[in-house]
Design goal:
Helix content is about 10%, strand content about 45%. The chain is mainly beta. Strands 1, 2, 3, 4, 5, 6, 7, 8, 9 and 10 form a ten-stranded mixed sheet that branches. The structure holds copper (II) ion.
Length: about 160
């Protein structure tokens, strides 16, 4: 019965692309880390999450060989002191970019397995509840205060 087989194959072809060819709802951009001072055991990764889908997703953190452990941290003020807290997940609502940046949420690199040198990059795998795993390259930037390019840090507005 070659005809049955043909129909079956056609069905498979029609069904498959619907899920596999869809535009990825989630993307990770501007992944960067600060160069680690010599001997520093820890570091932090900052990045921007974009949810272009219609359903909320959740960022579950990341993994990679750059550190013994990578934790998702938020920063909060407690008695005028900035404190880091480990969280299990961060909401990534549709439409609004979620920015992990210095003095804000970040991926904490605990127990660096390699020094972070400016100009180099390393891979991490970001995990999402719905989107699954997304791999990104994290660019290492020079230490704060050293800006080989770009505007000087005097952008205070009163
Ligand atoms: Cu931290």
């Amino acid at each position: 019965m070659p005809q049955v087989l043909a129909i079956c194959c056609l069905c498979c072809l029609l069904l498959l692309p619907a899920s596999s060819r869809a535009e990825p709802a989630l993307s990770v951009t501007e992944a960067w880390a600060r160069e680690s001072p010599p001997g520093s055991p820890n570091g932090a990764v900052y990045l921007t999450l974009h949810n272009r889908g219609k359903v909320p997703d959740r960022f579950l953190g990341a993994s990679g060989a750059v550190a013994t452990a990578i934790e998702l941290h938020t920063v909060l003020m407690e008695d005028q002191v900035m404190k880091m807290r480990r969280v299990d997940a961060m909401p990534v609502p549709p439409g609004l970019p979620v920015v992990l940046k210095p003095s804000g949420p970040h991926l904490m690199l605990i127990g660096l397995t390699q020094p972070l040198r400016a100009g180099q990059s390393f891979p991490v795998r970001c995990h999402f509840e719905h989107a699954g795993e997304i791999s990104v390259d994290v660019t290492v930037r020079p230490p704060e205060g050293q800006r080989p390019s770009g505007p000087a840090p005097h952008d205070k507005h009163h």
